[in-house]
Amino acid sequence: MAAASVARCGDWLMISAGKTLLSLDTGSSRNAFVFDCSAAERRPRDEAADGDDHRDAEVSRDEGTDCILALAVSPTGKLVALTDDNKRLVLFRTEPKWQCVSTRWVVRRCTSLAFSMDEECVLVADKSGDVYSFSTKQPHAAGQVKLGHLSMLLALTVTPDNKFSITADRDEKIRVSCLRGPHNIQSFCLGHTEFVSALLVPSKSPDCLLSGSGDGTVKLWHYETGRRLQSWDLQELSETPTEERLAVRRISCSPDGHVAVQCDRCPWLQLFEIKEGSEVKPSTCLRLPHVVWDMVFDQKCQLWILLENQQTPVLLYKHAQQGWEQCDLQQSDLKRVSAALHTHWDCFKECVGSPSRLHQLYKVNFDNMAAYRQKKEERMQQKRAAGNGAPSNKTRKRVKLGSEHTHESVL
Question: Where is the composition biased (Basic and acidic residues) (predicted)?
Answer without folding.
Answer: 401-411
